[in-house]
Amino acid sequence: MTGSYNAILVIASYCVAVIASYTAIYFGTRVFHFDGAQRRNWLVAGALCLGTGIWSMHFVGMSAFEMPMEMTMSFNAGLTVLSWLPALVASGLALHVITLPRVSAAAIAAASLIMGAGIFSMHYLGMYAMQMQPAIQYDPVWVSISAAIAVGASGAALMICRKIRDVPVQYAVWVKALAALVMGAAICGMHYSGMVAAIYPMDGAMDQGNHLQGNWMGVPTAIVVSGLLLLAIYVAYSDLRARDRARQAQERAQDQARQAAFYDAATGLPNRSHLERQLLERLTVTARGAQPEPFLLFYVELQNPDDAQVLEVAQQLKRSFSRAEQVVRYSSDSFMVLHQPLSGEEVKRKLVTLNTAFLSNASIGRWGWGVSQYPASASNSRGLMQGAQRVREWLTPEDAAPGGRQVA
Question: CB-based burial of residue 284 (10 Å sphere; 0-12 exposed, 13-18 middle, 19+ buried)?
Fold first, then answer.
């Protein structure tokens, strides 16, 4: 006994398979970022979505088959529910495998066999749920083909889902959609090859104990399940967006706390704490015993500066020491510059440059400078900073004017 297929329901079954595949891919790529209880919860939710989607696609596809002689397809309720379990197990295994950090080719092959067996079992349990007298017979060749498609489709799905994690973000949505279309076609291919394997007896009749009527399981099932799967994607997307916003807010708070702890609010320069941490890192001997590179600390101290003078000196120091590693606001009236080693003549030229620049700003008065070098002056950060703070000379901008005192 042969039948025909309702084209609308065939298309609907493919749509369900595609949506279920996209849901699985979406969950699979997201689960990778979680661990512990969160990872387990997402795996369970993803397995429920994918397993239910594949299972529903099967029954939409079954409903697409139109029996001859106006026979209405029906199913045993208990066996129908039982056929759902292999789909869940196969889906859970698939999601687990695609979210592992590393998976060998042998593990992929084994997972493909188990997942394919789960989908194969779901399909033929579902067919068995369509109790008929006499019983449905099966063509062993087409059964073998459907089994091969189930295993092959499972392997392809696992490989696709693992590769998607490496796709650039701007292409991820399109690649996921294309992968879902391919996976949906593979799932439908397995189902309809399995349907071809079925040989219905000419005098067959549905069992009176079948309580689920196929005439209402097609379009409604497709609509309800597709809606639920899309809702699951929306809920998952909303949850992840909320997590991203919370993470970004936490990062901003940490950045603000770090800024307050290691940077001066008035000038935006690193502060003393930042310099101390930087020197500690610079003076640490490496694991191979390599000694730190030499460097210089240049110190500038102002006498009773106001905010405008502090800002002016900060800007001038950054211009004059453009190759410095750091210009630091050391205290309310002083600055420190971390620089590569300089000779005495180079230091003198820096002093002249600074004093000449200060001459153009009448508000800047007397200022002092000091310097220390590693390793000549000291071998630790405390000694270097204390050495730099010993003011060697007090200057005024007028010293840079024609006829003024020469910088020593």
Answer: exposed
Q: Specify the DSSP class assigned to residue 334.
A: E
Strand 132-133 versus strand 137-138 pairing type: unpaired
* Residues 309 and 208 placed together within one structural domain of the fold: no
Q: What angle do CA 127, 111, 62 make, to 5 degrees?
A: 20
CA-based R_g, the chain, Å: 37
Q: Please state the pTM of the whole predicted model.
A: 0.57
Q: From 323, 348, 21, 359, select the one nearest 182 (Cα to Cα).
A: 21
Please report whether residue 257 resides in a domain.
no
Tokens of 349: 């030229």
Instruction: Compute mean pLDDT per 10 residues along the chain, 408 residues long, and list them.
Output: 75 86 78 74 80 83 71 71 85 78 82 85 83 78 90 82 76 82 84 84 61 56 70 71 79 79 88 90 70 90 88 89 90 92 88 82 79 90 91 76 51
Same domain as 144, residue 102: yes
Other beta carbons within 10 angstroms of residue 70's beta carbon come to 6
